Predict the structure.
Amino acid sequence: MKKNLLFAFILSVVSVSVYSQVQSTTFGGLWHDPNTWIGLTVPGENDDVIINGPVVQAYTSGYAILPVHCNNLTITSSGSLRNGGYGGGNGIFPVYVHGSAVNNGIVENGGEDALKMFVYGDLTNNNIWMPVETELTNSGNHNLSLLEGMTFGSKIIVNSSTGITALTDLVFTCDWYSDGYYNRSHLMLNGHIFSVGNHSLEMRHCLVNSGTLTGDFEILGTFKVGYDVSDTLKFNGNITVTDTLMANVYGGGYGIYKLRINGNLLNNGVIMDNMDTKAPLNDDDLEILITGDIINNRHWSCKYVKLAGDETQHITQGTDRFFDSYFSDLNPESDIVAQSNITIMNDLNLNGAHLNMAGDTLTIYGWLYGGAIENTNLNNGFLNNIISMGGLSVNGVVTIENNNIFHDYVIVNDTLQSIEYGGGSITYTLQVRGDITNYGLIRNINDGDLLSLEITGGIDNHGLWENAYTKFSGSQQQQIHQLPGKVFQTNFTDVDSVSMVVATSDLKIAGNYNLLRSTLEMNHYEIDISGHLYNGRVNSAIIKNATLSNITASGNTEIRGIVVIDDGNRFYGNLLVTDTLQSQVYGGGSYTYSLYNFGNIENNGLIRNEPTQNESFALYVQGDIINRGTFTNYANYQLFYLNDDVHQVSCMNNGTTNWQFEGADITGAGAESFSMISGGGIQTVPPGESWEVSVQFVPAGSVFTAQLNIHCTETGSLGTIYLIGYNENSTVGVKDPGVLNEQGNSLMLRNYPNPFTQGTTISWHQPEKAHVVLKLYDFTGKEMCTLMDCDRSSGEHRFNYDASKLPSGIYFLKGWFDDCTSAWKMLKM
């Protein structure tokens, strides 16, 4: 049971003396004078001595100081033991106690010179003990006892081969008076063991020079570590600091004093360095090496804490407390488990160890490096070589250097940023092997020292995202989401060419997006990008303000803002322009940029050449052209195939007065292969109404190019449409781009006749048995009906469809054949 002073260890010793007993008179006298002793016999080392009065050790012979001896020594409350005067300089008068000493009176130096006690056995002090030195010497252990309220003065020297043991709480002052001056020294343990037990220990203005203190003891008063800066003092046991544990003053420059605790450390007081407020450069530091658990309930500001345990170490911090220390772990295989929030004002070097925060907050104002953290709420810190597991929440300002990997998930509630390099510019990469959600700020520290994120999971942005690079690095499908009104101020890259990123919201990107041959599935959400979108596939996108190059767009695509076309772009599906579609600035002469759209195009905005340098923009359309806006671009082409042989051109009057169409005609070398099968006549079109023409391609001769001339001054560059026919079937446009082929046989849907008036026959070829679903859609994509939903065997199939009740117009037939699909356009007259 721990007491309030220092240590408690109870040992009962029952002994029977076989030595003769010699008592002093109450008048006392000189030790070597027979008149001092009852019986007139000067005691020797075989005699037990009881001092009842003032006894003085002043035994000399000439200039030699001679020792006096006894076995056990007892000084009563009326007794005292002092030295006499030497008279020939400074002298130390020795007293050898070959047994144990019990002091109930006074043991101290005389008016001049000094007294030294040699004790071979136990030492008990119940009053004043202040000789110049007390040397505990022999091959056995020494038990020390102290009456409450008393202290052990004197420089205490342990020369025993086994050490000393506390039987009570102990207070050491190690002080004495000599020649009228007050002096102080230390407990010279000299590398031996001090068994404190579970008693309290107070080293009042004195030190323990070296050795090991054992027991579950409590530190009262001020215990200073650091008699010898090259030595390590050891505590074996569980230690409680109730008052102060601190470093000593080195006195010879800067010193680091070391204390090793093989056990737990509970701080309810102060653990600190020796701070010289008058000369801060002379501060001396305390380094604690500990193998057990740490609990800090008050003030902790020693310079270094080193975790040295082989087993799991736990660390706990009281509310509003912190560690103003540099922490490090000496065992790279060890585990550290936090049992509360932890605040470290300096660095934490894990040195390969594993820190499990168990969902609590780690606040660190220095570096966190060289190990693994788990289940952590991280507040502040500079990170290097850190692996995070089990999720990480970023609070405060977390700064990234090199070789950091965050697993599972990351939530940014405050700031995640790169570090300042200080010697040029550099890019720091953070790997996030999981999802990342941002509610705060992700940024570069400056324009030269950049942060790059490599993310394998999903991205959800609710805050400010302003780093240089964000890379999708997952091999599985990744999702991206953005809160309305937020912006990704970053450059996106997908480093896995076979991966897919799926948008679950509109996206606004102030930067570039390099798909690197991967797929971005927009799910009909808007992607607003101020830079380039390039080198990959984009599905079902609303594209705003991007510059496109080498983009394959599938599904229906809508253009908003000003979308600029560079080289290598192909759109598969219907294209809707609601704002501006134009060419790129070439910058080195003249150049024609082309866009191929394998599907219908509806223009409700502006299609034009680049306006500052008039770089030409050519539009190739395998489908219908529906104009409700303005065409001023260089040229427009309409593509026809044997299996996609009818296309329509529709021009709506978007003005305020009537438009006059003077009809249309087809001219050119291959004009005989094209015919207007409906519309195209002379017509006055009021505002809001449309003029239409349908053209069919039937190969004739060997030339399949011509011009459709629309005679109306308001149609802009759409007044001439260049017709290109191919004497072959198309494998794009009428089918989804990913339609599978089996053994060279395409699952291509057809119908004949096409156009038709009443009925038509739908045909297809199946390479193998499949479940077949056929559905019919109108031009807007509305499902009209299901024609078939059943299993079909392999081979050629035909289905007669009665379309007499269908209104005239363009329709799309789509078929599903197990995992394969096919589509076909039909025209009802």
In short: The domain at 744-828 is CATH 2.60.40.2550 (Immunoglobulin-like). The longest strand covers residues 367-400.
